[in-house]
Amino acid sequence: MMKKLLPLFLLMLLLAACSNDNKESTASENDTHIVIASQSEPLTSMVEVAAEVIEEPYTMELLPVNDNIQYNEATFNDEVDGSLSQHELYMEGFNEEAGADLVAIQPAYISNVGFYSPVYDSIDEIEAGAEVAIPSDPPNEARALLILDSAGLITLDEDTGIDAAVSDIVENPKDLQFTPVDLFNLTAAYEDGVELVFEHPNLIANIGLYPKDAILLEDEDEKRFAFQLVTREGKADSPKMQAAKRALASQEVYDLLMEEAEHEMFTPAFEPGQPAE
């Protein structure tokens, strides 16, 4: 009887060993494979270039998403390792709303945002009662209003800052009429003839417009609005995310951004080869 059981026992040991090897192999792969969610250019291309230059044994994969919500939910739910799609203020808004623990660990670039008009050639031409399309999400709404405040078109409450909202406007001498629009539909608002439209350069470029065509641009020193590599707090110092930071701060990724400088769409927010500490 013992002779019959012995081969069975050995087989079970062999299977158990194979199972452990598979688990260790999967765990090892998870420790070196990095998935980053992103949804628009040049962010997606940055991830793809970083994937080409990331140091061994790490690999990087781009997960394309279709809206401004998926990448944060996927990161928070550990479906991806991180995202490259937003500035820190937008991330903080998601954290507050979802009770999440996302952190920004590597700046990428500052998007040279501004206001475009199919009607006016300068802000001096803006007429009383003009419609102004601004982003419907609070962080980008605040960004748009701060630009208008800096230009003297409106005055915000002096206690208002990066949380500015239309309700914080204390002076509106031209009686501008504000219409909240989803960030990805603002270009359509321009095409529909809205007099003044806030937009990001990578989105307005889809209809052949660039920052040089804007009638009002954001101050170049607004580094707080730099797009960032974002991950969960518990992963921020992990070897794989540190490798991701180094890849995204590489010379090759910097060169990609500088190619876009032809239209002054973006300003790199890092020095090549110098990832954030």
Describe the protein in words:
The protein has 277 residues and is α/β, with parallel strands linked by helices. It folds into two domains: 35-112 and 223-268, Periplasmic binding protein-like II (D-Maltodextrin-Binding Protein, domain 2, 3-Layer(aba) Sandwich), CATH 3.40.190.10; 114-217, D-Maltodextrin-Binding Protein, domain 2 (3-Layer(aba) Sandwich). It is 37% helix and 22% strand. The chain has helices at 2-32, 43-53, 70-76, 88-98, 138-150, 186-191, 201-204, 239-248, 251-260; strands at residues 33-38, 59-64, 82-87, 102-111, 114-116, 131-135, 155-156, 169-171, 177-181, 196-199, 216-217, 226-232, 266-268. The strands form three sheets. The chain has a six-stranded mixed beta sheet, with helices on both faces. It has a five-stranded mixed beta sheet with strand order 9-6-10-5-11. Helix 2 links the parallel strand 1 and strand 2 (59-64). The radius of gyration is 24 Å and the shape is globular. Residues 1-28 have low confidence and may be disordered.
